[in-house]
Amino acid sequence: MDFLNLLQWPAMLVTMSAAWLVASRSALRREVGFWVFLLSNALWVVWGWHTSAPALIALQVGLAALNIRGAMKTEATNDLVP
C-alpha cells in the first residue's frame, strides 16, 4: 500500500476534527475549524485525484466553496452586531 492510499485516513481524521471544532461555542475554535475543513478538502482532493474519483473531487470543491461562503456570511453578520 503506497502513501497516497493511506492518505484517506488522515483526511478522515482531519474532517472529523474540523466538524468537532466548528460545533464549538468558542468563536476561535469555530474559526480554526473552518481552516481545518479547508485542509481536509485539500487532502480529499489529493486522494481523489490519486484514486481517479472525479465525483469526490467535485464534492470537495463544492464543500470548500460552501464553507467559504458561510464564513463570509458569518463575518458580514458579525460586522452588523454592535
Give a short synopsis of this structure.
The chain is an all-alpha fold. It contains four helices and no strands. The longest helix has 27 residues.
Overview of this structure, please?
- This protein is an all-alpha fold.
- The protein has a domain at 36-75.
- It is built from 4 helices and no strands.
- Helix 2 packs antiparallel against helix 3 (27-50) and helix 3 packs antiparallel against helix 4.
- The radius of gyration is 15 Å and the shape is elongated.
- The termini are far apart.
- The model has no long low-confidence stretch (mean pLDDT 91).
Shape: elongated
- Number of distinct beta strands: 0
- Class computed from helices, strands and strand pairing: mainly alpha
Helix content: over 70%
**Count of separate DSSP helical elements:** 4
Can you lay out the helices and strands and say which pair or pack?
Blueprint: H1 3-6, H2 8-22, H3 27-50, H4 54-80
Distinctive features:
82 residues; 4 helices; 85% helix; mainly alpha
